Give the backbone structure.
Amino acid sequence: MADWREKITSVSKTKGTSAPEGAKRAGLGCLGLIVAAISILTLLITIGLFKSGYGLMGVLTTAFLVVCIATTVLLLAPSKRNPL
């Protein structure tokens, strides 16, 4: 528990110019999971629109779905490989 307190105090002591790598990864991970949940809900909406016969709206939500999936992949895939 003390380890978590130390991490929280180290993040709260930053002046906004920098943050620990762990905090950055945790923040991007949470954002990626939220966008993934939005992608799943958008997929369900898209399927419902196509089944109901609303093709134009289905195409628009499909485009939004593709953007959401691409954003999720970019957020959850590590951009920098640590060679160690």
In short: Residues 21-52 form the longest helix (32 residues).
